[in-house]
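Q: I'm building a small set of examples for a reading group on sequence design. Run inverse folding on the following structure and report the sequence directly after it, with nothing in between.
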C-alpha cells in the first residue's frame, strides 16, 4: 500500500516546540495546539512574529521532537513492504528550512526509513492526486476535507496537540476516519 503522512503534528511534535520556545524566551506557560500558520490566532502579535521569524533557524527546528512510537510504526510499515510518502506544507523554496528539515528527517527523526518521496508544497492535493495514495494522514482538518477526492482513505490525527477544532470535527466524522496516533494504521493495513 501507498501511505502518505504530513510531518508537523502528525509525525513530529511541532506544537510542543512552539510551547517550549514561548516558555524559554517569554517565560509564559502556554499550551496551544496549532501549527505555524495558526500562531496568530493563539498568541500576542509580537510573539507570533518572533516564532515565524525563528522558524527557519536550525536552533528552533532542532527542538522539534518526534512523537513517541512514530519511528517504530514507520519501521513496521516499511518492513511490511508499504511505500511511505512524506508531504509537508513547509516552505521548500527557502533552502535553509528545506535543508535542515531533510537533515533532521534522514539523520535524527527517521534514520533508515526509505520514503518513496518527500515533498515540500503548499498544495498537498496536487501530490495526493499524483501519488494515488491508499492512505493519507494529516492533522489539519482543512487538508483532511480537501484530500478526500484524491486518496482512497484520509485519516485525521486528533489529540491534545492538534488543531483545537479537530475534536469538534472528529465528533461529526465516521470514527474510523479519526485516529489519535499513527500507530493505529497498523491495524488498518
Amino acid at each position: 500500500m501507498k501511505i502518505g503522512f504530513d510531518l508537523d503534528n502528525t509525525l513530529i511534535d511541532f506544537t510542543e516546540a512552539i510551547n517550549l520556545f514561548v516558555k524559554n524566551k517569554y517565560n509564559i506557560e502556554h499550551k496551544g495546539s496549532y501549527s505555524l500558520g495558526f500562531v496568530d490566532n493563539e498568541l500576542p502579535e509580537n510573539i507570533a512574529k518572533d516564532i515565524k521569524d525563528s522558524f527557519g533557524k536550525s536552533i528552533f527546528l532542532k527542538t522539534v521532537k518526534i512523537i513517541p512510537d512514530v519511528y517504530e510504526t514507520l519501521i513496521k510499515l516499511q518492513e511490511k513492504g508499504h511505500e511511505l510518502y512524506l508531504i509537508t506544507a513547509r516552505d521548500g523554496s527557502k533552502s535553509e528550512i528545506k535543508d535542515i528539515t531533510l537533515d533532521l528527517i534522514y539523520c535524527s527523526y527517521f534514520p533508515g526509513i526509505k520514503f518513496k518521496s518527500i515533498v515540500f508544497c503548499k498544495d498537498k492535493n496536487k501530490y495526493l492526486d499524483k501519488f494515488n495514495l491508499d492512505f493519507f494522514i494529516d492533522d489539519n482538518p482543512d487538508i483532511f476535507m480537501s484530500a478526500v477526492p484524491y486518496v482512497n482513505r484520509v485519516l485525521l490525527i486528533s489529540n491534545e496537540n492538534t488543531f483545537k477544532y479537530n475534536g469538534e470535527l472528529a465528533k461529526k466524522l465516521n470514527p474510523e476516519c479519526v485516529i489519535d496516533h499513527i500507530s493505529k494504521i497498523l491495524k488498518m493495513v
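The first strand starts at residue 2 and ends at 5.
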